[in-house]
């Protein structure tokens, strides 16, 4: 992760060791290693911010790709809205234009991913580094055909 330390000023990342969490390490047939990392800010995921660091067979970093944002400047990470309230708001909105039903045990087996609890995260409106907000990411699966992600201002 020395590469991230060297590139921190260019990336505008204050503390790369604290702001990137290793999700997965993969080795390919050419002997290269690929490190997949999620950007985090004070323990919260930064939505849509994942990078991959590619190292050759000698461990030398050859490239970095993906999306990241400068270190967020949100000082207060205390949500004004609870995760349950965010989930209720999302469900109310979704109910206005699609059929929402409780999936049976069999239907849940076929769902692409299980619904999860609301997750607090840092979100950048329009992918703009200047428009960062604290929000709840709420995933809803109202039926077998649909899977929705809502971002509710926290």
Shape: flat
Strand order of the largest sheet: 1-2-3-4
Radius of gyration over C-alpha positions, nearest whole angstrom: 19 Å
Measured by DSSP, the beta-strand proportion falls in 35-45%
Residue-averaged pLDDT: 93
> How many H/I helices?
4
Q: Helicity, in percent? A: 10-25%
How would you sum up this structure in a few lines?
The protein has about 150 residues and is an alpha+beta fold. The protein contains four helices and seven strands, in the order ααββββααβββ. The strands form two sheets. Strands 1-2-3-4 form a four-stranded antiparallel sheet.
Could you name the key traits of this structure?
40% strand, alpha+beta, 21% helix, three-stranded antiparallel sheet, four-stranded antiparallel sheet, 154 residues
Task: Please provide a written account of the structure.
- This protein is of the alpha+beta class.
- Helix content is 21%, strand content 40%.
- The chain contains four helices and seven strands, in the order H-H-E-E-E-E-H-H-E-E-E.
- It has helices at residues 2-11, 16-19, 83-95, 105-110; strands at residues 20-27, 33-41, 44-55, 61-66, 119-124, 132-143, 146-153.
- The protein has a four-stranded antiparallel β-sheet with strand order 1-2-3-4. A three-stranded antiparallel β-sheet has the order 5-6-7, covered by helices on one side.
- Strand 1 and strand 2 form a beta hairpin.
- The longest helix is centred in the middle third of the chain and has 13 residues, at 83-95.
